[in-house]
Amino acid sequence: MANVRKAPQAILKREPPKHNAKQIKRRKTKEVILTCVLIALSIVTIFTFTHLFKRIQFSLVDQQSVYGVWVEQNVAGYATRKIHIGPDGVSVSGRVVSTNYEFDGNILEYQTGELLYQYRMLNEQNTQMIQLSDSHYNPTYHLVEEYTERLR
After folding, report:
1. Which of 10, 38, 49, 105 has its CA at a distance of 20 to 30 angstroms from the CA of residue 80?
2. How many CA atoms lie within 13 A of 96 on its CB side?
3. Which residues are registered as beta bridge partners of 5?
């Protein structure tokens, strides 16, 4: 056999570049700041799109479909609650209890003081709703009178 000579391979040792401690600390600080900024921007983006989605959802729902007089069902006449819903707000038994309400097509909600009232529609025509509450009694309401503009 022929005498085959292998070329000696040079073993090169690479030494890590020498950085001083200030440069490393500065770079780490920049990384931390950039990470915090990205997290903050992500949170702002999520809240913005959530708010935008909610606004679009409410604009697509016909708010006037719940306007009218809602009467509590299956109770004695003297204890019946009447809820008037119109563009000016919500009135219960002749008293304005809230000037703001939200209706997303399925859930109607308004707040009176610290109490949040929620009602779920029971049919597609939005003529029956049930009050959602933690108590054992969840009254059902029926739309008996559509809202009409009251002229003096």
Report:
1. 105
2. 8
3. none
As a whole number of angstroms, the distance between CA 94 and CA 80 comes to 13
Residues 79 and 65: their CA atoms lie apart, in Å, by 26
The Cα 102–Cα 70 span in angstroms is 16
**Cβ-contact 67, 147 below 8 angstroms:** yes
For residue range 106-146, what is the model confidence (pLDDT) as tens digits? Answer: 999 999 999 999 999 999 888 999 999 888 889 999 998 77
Is the distance from CB of 80 to CB of 69 less than 8 angstroms? Answer: no
Query: What tokens were used for 128?
Result: 């029956």
> How many angstroms separate the CA atoms of 117 and 104, rounded?
14
- In angstroms, the CA 66 to CA 64 distance is 5
